[in-house]
Amino acid sequence: MSEEISLTPIGREQIHKLETALLISTILSPEVIEELKNPAERLTWVDSLAVAAAALAREKAKMTITQIAEDIGRSEATIRNHLTGKTKAGQLIRQTYERFLREGIKIEIPSTKELEELKRKLEEEKKKIEILENTLKDVKESLKQLMEKLEKV
C-alpha cells in the first residue's frame, strides 16, 4: 500500500510522514548501514539522523529554527547545524530529501528472498577468503622453509 508523502508538509501528520520517510530511506543507504556497524557509535548516529530528519521535515513545513528547536527539544544551534549541513547526519538527510525531489519518494526494503541470497553469497565469499588465507599461510611456510635451506647451502 502506497501512502502519499508531501515534500512540503502541512500539519503534524504530513510532517511526521516526511520525517519518517527521510529517516528510513537514509538509514537504509549503504553509507549509513556501514556507519551503523560500529556498535559504539550506533545510538549516536541514529539519534543524530532522527533529529536531522525531524528538523528538515519541519523546515519544509515553514517552521522557524526556534519553533523546530522547541518542538523536538533540541537547541537552536543543533537544529541550525543539521539544517546547514555542518553535521554528517544533516548532510545525509538533505541528500535523501534532494533525491526525493528528483526521483520521488521510494523506500526500497529488500525482500526476505533477496536478503537470503545476499547472505548466501556473503557466506560463499567468506569461505573463499578462508581458503585463500590458508593457501597464503601455506605458501609463506613453504617460502620460509626454502629460505632456511638456501641459507644452509
The largest sheet is: none
Q: What's the mean pLDDT score?
A: 87
β-sheet strand percentage: under 5%
Shape: elongated
Secondary structure: helix percent? over 70%
Could you tell me the number of beta strands?
0
Helical segment count = 7
Give a quick set of tags describing it.
about 150 residues; mainly alpha; 7 helices
Structural summary, described in words:
The structure is a single chain. By secondary structure, the protein is mostly helical. It has 2 domains: 12-103, no CATH class; 110-153. 76% of the residues lie in helices and 0% in strands. The chain has helices spanning 12-27, 30-35, 39-60, 65-72, 76-83, 88-103, 112-152. 19% of the residues are buried. The mean pLDDT is 87.
Topology:
Blueprint: H1 12-27, H2 30-35, H3 39-60, H4 65-72, H5 76-83, H6 88-103, H7 112-152
Helix pairs in contact: 1-3, 1-6, 3-4, 3-6, 4-5
Short description:
The protein is mainly α and 153 residues long. It is built from seven helices and no strands. It folds into two domains: 12-103, no CATH class; 110-153.
